[in-house]
Every structure is written in C-alpha cells, then in structure tokens.
Amino acid sequence: MSLIPASRVGGAPAAQTRAWAPDGPLDVRLTVSPLRRGGGDPAFRITPDGAVWRASRTPEGPATLRITGSAAALEGHAWGPGAQWMLAAMPGLLGGLDEGAEFVPRHKVVHRSHRRHPGLRLTRTGLVLEALIPSILEQKVTTAEAYRAWKLLLLQHGERAPGPAPADRMRVMPDARGWARVPSWDWHCAGVDDKRASTVMRAVRLGPRLDALAARDAAQASAGLQTVPGIGPWTAAETLQRSHGATDFVSVGDLHLSHHIGYALTGAQRTDDETMLRLLEPYAGQRHRAARLILLGASGPPRRAPRLAPNPPGRWS
C-alpha cells in the first residue's frame, strides 16, 4: 500500500492519506450503509459535505477514517494508532474485494433492482468483534431499541475518536477492559437484558480469538462464532455480512426478512425461512446479495398489525 504524505484536514492533526479508485461502479453510501447502526450511531457519520466517517477499534488500536471524493477517485484520511490498518482495509470496506460480476438476476424484481443500483457492493471490514457486538444487541428486539442501546453504550463508555471527528461526538467501541467496566445499571438503562449483556461479555473475553476469524473463510468463521453460547445462525450471518462481505449468508431467523422476500418473489403474505431459502436457491453463493437487492427494489407485505412497541427499561429488572 502506498500512502500519500501526511496531510491536515481543517487544521486538525496530520492524517495518513490514501487514494483509491474502484474498478467499476461504486455507490459509497449504499455499500457502507449496513455499518451504520441508526442515524445517531457514534461510530459512523455522513457530514453535509458528503464525507463518510468511521471510528473503529482495529488490531493496531483506535482509528478514525474519513472518505471523500467521487466514486471514480476516492481519498481516505485516517487518524490514530490504527490509521495505517484502516487505510489498508479501505478497499475492502468499499467493496473492492467483492466479487459481484458473476451475479445473474433470476427474477424481474431482482433484475430491476440490480439495474437501478449498479454501484451496490458488499462491504468487508475485517473486524469481527466490531460487527458482532451490535448484532448481539439486535437479538430479539426492535431495531430502534438496538440502535438506542448501541448509541448509549458507546457515548458513555466508548473512547473519543482520534482526529477531527465531526461534532466531537464520535466514539470508538470500548476495548475488553472498557466493556468489563460497564455497570449493570448502564446495561439496564440502555435496555439490554442480562442474556444479551452476558453474550457480549463472553464475546469480548474471546475478542482476539474471534477477530482472528477474519482470516478464515465465512463458513469456518460462522462455525467459530457459533461455539460461543448466545450466538446462533442469525447473529453469525449478520456479523459475517459486514466483517467478511459474506455473499451467501442470509439472516435466517429474522422477524421480517423471509416475509419480505417471499412477498417480493411470489406475492405470499407470510413466508417461512425454509421457503425463503428455497426461493433464493437460484442465487446459491450469492444469496445475501440477492436479498439486499430485493430489499432495495421491492416493498414488503402490507402491515396487518401495529409496529412492535419498544420494551420499557423496567422489563429488564
């Protein structure tokens, strides 16, 4: 990797910088959007100038990455001990390792979505624990609840992001010692029950071993993740979609996904996981990509009941 000499952004401390050009269409926001855990995610920002900011805990330490430029010529600025690691991983983050050229749409809705979103690529961060912890928080609760928990825990216990992070509110996920210091009442106030909090702590204690799964293929990494009590196929798939850019891992067990895909492809109001996987069989090896395209290109079944209400914090006492 060749780095451009250190530069300054808005008078901030010097950053390491890298230029990178994708080998085809790239929609940066769409590609990295799965990494954003809600509009208030302290580890992810898109600023009014269009820059994408990410704060991460890399194997070499905390880092902040800022991505600017057009899809044809992108530039990354990075700060912190993990800056060089973040820049080395930038092409994977932006879908540079995604092998999507072999994808062939088999349904009209997939074909339309594929044509409308030529810049969609699958991100690959190389950071397993960073993808795993928020996925654990999302187990069996509403998306809004999970995003709120992630935001509160990072703002209270995360490390301030290195460099000129926007609004001075970006945070790097705590390290193992930081997670261990989260008191029970902060888990409670964030709406995280004992089961999910305990699963997070088990994962954190195995942090280096789990992050080493980034070097394994997705099937091996999935098997490794599921040896941890509290981590099943859904959580493993949600993690590997982000850490590995796992093209074939579908979130089986999701409350809505099977119904959405079934309705888009057959018009059925209710579809179970087994039927969803059968419908996605023509995309074997690329089922996650097909699912993303379906979610982007087709609406789900009409609602037949009110949205699930968030659980009050008192439920966890």
TrEMBL record:
Keywords recorded for this protein, A-Z: DNA damage, DNA repair
Annotated TM spans: none
Keyword Cell division: no
Annotated region (Disordered), positions in chain: 1-20
InterPro entries in the cross-refs: Alkylbase_DNA_Glycosylase/TA (IPR051912), DNA_glycosylase (IPR011257)
GTP-binding among keywords: no
Database matches in Gene3D superfamilies: Hypothetical protein, domain 2
Protein name stated in the entry: DNA-3-methyladenine glycosylase 2 family protein
Lineage: Bacteria, Bacillati, Actinomycetota, Actinomycetes, Kitasatosporales
